[in-house]
Give the backbone structure.
Amino acid sequence: MRTYFIKTFGCAQNESDSERIASSLEGRGMVKSKDIYQADHVIINTCMVREMAENRVYGLVNNLVKNKLQTGKPEKIIVTGCMVGMAVRDKTGTFLKIIKKRLPSVNEFLPIEEVGFDHPPLRSDTSSAQVPISNGCNNFCTFCVVPFTRGREISRPYHDIIEECRNLVQKGYKKITLLGMNVNSYGADLVAGRDNIQVLRDIDKKYFAPPIGVRSHGYQLPDGRVIKPVFVKHLNRLRIPTLFPYLLNDIAQIKGLELIDFISSNPWDFSSELTAVIHKNPNITRSLHIAIQSGSDRVLKRMNRWYTSSDLLHLFTDLKLKIKNLKLSTDIIVGFCGETEKEFQDTVDLVTKVGFYKAYISMYSDRPMTAAHKAFQDDIAHAEKKRRWQILEEMINKP
Ligand code: SF4
């Protein structure tokens, strides 16, 4: 029997994609190898969020090539995930040329879209499951490569997600984690109609402009309710309501499901409806991970994050007030382009006021294709980034 090994880099979304790749390979009669260096096929699911993650892929391929020279294995190296996503979306073809040149021994570059959602994931955990609800992102934060590696946000049909969660609970799963690059905006494309998303973004640029040009009859939920694209003014942007609070509420009603978690969650779509749904359903997590990235209004603006530090304080105060036993964690980037000492101190101040129990703190890493790469200088020295990282790390993660 032919054997495979999947090496996954990066986030929970990549892990979930790897479960579907495994299912697709086993559907073709392959079996999992315990050792990467003895597998016939090695599939590398890549991440590009930071340069370090990308370099680890190049290092791994080199090691596999050396192993092949000695043992003949692996026969085939397949690269998928974010690096390939970036390559297929780069219309100039430059990035594909770069990775083909750096990885001449790779036999196949597989876009993850070709695996699709039709393959039920091959899960190794029998009590806790990850369920993707959307892929891609429309937000274009200036530092982030995700809209280029995963493309625009596409939501899975509501009914399919509910069905998958019901089946999991019937099989004995007790915990489900809903996955998306921005779970809170789940369903905006379903409500507005996918073709309208670009129109919506154009409207968003003109604050308070009338919502012309977007036509849709809305999206029908399984219980018959139709959610129409009524525009709401949220954090100074025109938005359509998202389906996430409805989806979360419906999943919480599945009998036998003990815990529902969700990542990644962004502050701007964290609506009062969502807070109310969490409040009334005790089986929804009380450990909320909400990525702030910075506490400085000026840095947030340069990052194209559509909220201010006072919006954040308002949101966190409201959440603490309404949800008992709440634990808050977050993501923060230090040393973003042009971040002054004062701007960094604004983040320190916000962190002090909110009191996060955990934070994923990263030093800014310049990424190709992003707006920050094109428009700003990565001008904070590594040693200074490290100093700021250490200050926050000690404040939040090692108090
Ligand atoms: S919302 Fe998240 S995934 Fe989307 S562009 Fe911003 S950081 Fe990237």
Observations:
- The two ends are 52 Å apart (CA to CA).
- The chain has three domains: 3-114, 125-283, 286-399.
